[in-house]
Amino acid sequence: MSTTMLAGREIHVDGEGFLTEYDEWDESLALELATQIGVEMTPEHWDVIRFLRSDFAQTGQTATTRRVQAVGGVPVKQQFALFPKKPGKKMSYIAGLPKPAGCV
């Protein structure tokens, strides 16, 4: 497991830069992560990120785009608008969670 410096502190990441320690995440870190991948956070973005964090805490798995639609109530089309090209990967990255299962 490697570490990197983000938002003025050391955090644990995997080989692709995804956080590996759930408790190291906070909203200031999320802003830094979003900036790195060109996502400007709005209240709609935060709704998705907070859903992902809450769902992960309950299930132990990162929600897929289908689950975000079915359980979180955010249509896949809207997810692509908020997190262009690879919403599952971008949402989980900003939320400080592992990539969802099946995400390339």
Automatic annotation (TrEMBL):
Keyword line: Cytoplasm
Domain of life: Bacteria
Subcellular localization: Cytoplasm
Keyword Cytoplasm set for record: yes
InterPro entries per record: DsrC-like_C, DsrC-like_dom_sf, DsrC-like_N, DsrC/TusE
GO CC annotation, single: cytoplasm
GO biological process, one term: tRNA wobble position uridine thiolation
Residues at the catalytic site: C103 (cysteine persulfide intermediate)
GO function term, MF aspect, one: sulfur carrier activity
UniProt record similarity statement: Belongs to the DsrC/TusE family.
PANTHER family linked to this entry: SULFURTRANSFERASE TUSE
Name of the molecule in the record: TusE/DsrC/DsvC family sulfur relay protein
Species the sequence originates in: Demequina lignilytica
